[in-house]
Amino acid sequence: MSQAAVDKTLLEQMLCSPCISVCVLDEASGFCKGCWRTVDEIAEWPNLMRHQRLEILRRLAERRGAKSLTDRGRGPMLAAD
Known about the structure:
The structure is a single chain. By secondary structure, the chain is mainly α. Helix content is about 40%, strand content about 0%. The chain has helices at about 5-15, 40-45, 50-65. The N and C termini lie far apart (about 50 Å).
């Protein structure tokens, strides 16, 4: 792979993880209480291209906006919290 191709790949992948080091999955929703991602989204993140990461970030914004899943904006904390 040429250096230009490597550089393009790196630029495509550069989009920081939404992880905030609160790595606890909510059993009811399946979302991380810190970043709102699913286990699959977390595992796939390092291998995703920029447009795929942007799609996940869009979904996270929707999840955060779903008031039925929030507890005063702290995350997807549900019944047991």
